[in-house]
Amino acid sequence: MQIGVIADVHANRPALLAVLEALGPVDHLLCAGDIVGYNPYPAWCVNRAQESMLCVQGNHDRLVDAPEPYRSNQMAYAGLCYAQEQLCENQLRWLDSLPEERTLIDGAIRMVHSHPANRDQYVRPAQFSTLEPHLREEAVLILGHTHMQHTERVGETLVCNPGSVGQPRDGDPRAGYAVIDTESYSVTTHRVTYDIETVQHAIEAADLPSETADRLNAGR
């Protein structure tokens, strides 16, 4: 079985379309949260997630209807306020109903958005080894939140951050994703280019912060 894995779409339609095209048909498509935020296509991305993905709730998904905690972060706050305006009630309810954790294949795959025990805590690549006390008997643990693509074996578990679809922060501006092969429980990570300029023009048209557009070129 081939399972596609994405995270941190952040309302970037061109990036998500490029990933879906590169990924091709898979048995399941998993999203480790943060479908909305920052970029200007929240309604389209939520609709696509509702149609075809098994998702967990990211911090932006959770706070889209109550963005005050991000008021000091201009880019995050503006993106959440814009998403709140653009999403319909059904989409807002769906985001609010998403679980913080999912397991698949009798617990062989576990997916969270950030730290598996401490919600919203970043787990950067250099910190993957610190997850060992929080692992169960899963073959693969999926997480996102940092926007940094990395896979590492921790004990008996393969920990995978597929990277961000819509706003990479690991120095590579290409959209990231991963594929799990359940025959061997191996993970391959991938990057794909997309039309960043189109997103930047849409950010400007939506009157979102210019910094949101600028960071896409640098993958930061």
Query: How many domains, in number, for the residues?
Result: 1
Residue-averaged pLDDT? 97
What is the assigned CATH homologous superfamily?
Answer: Metallo-dependent phosphatases
Q: Pairing-aware structural class of the strands and helices?
A: alpha/beta
CATH class: Alpha Beta
CATH architecture: 4-Layer Sandwich
Unreliable runs: none
User: What order do the SSEs take from the amino end to the carboxyl end, as H and E?
Assistant: EHEHEHHHEEEEEEEHH
Descriptive notes:
The protein has 220 residues and is of the alpha/beta class. The chain has a single domain, classed as Metallo-dependent phosphatases (Purple Acid Phosphatase, chain A, domain 2, 4-Layer Sandwich), CATH 3.60.21. Helices cover 31% and strands 21% of the residues. The chain is built from 7 helices and 10 strands. It has helices spanning 13-23, 42-52, 59-63, 74-86, 89-97, 196-205, 210-218, and strands at residues 2-6, 28-31, 54-55, 101-104, 109-112, 140-142, 150-154, 157-161, 175-181, 186-192. The strands form 2 sheets. A 5-stranded mixed sheet has the order 3-2-1-9-10. The radius of gyration is 16 Å and the shape is globular.
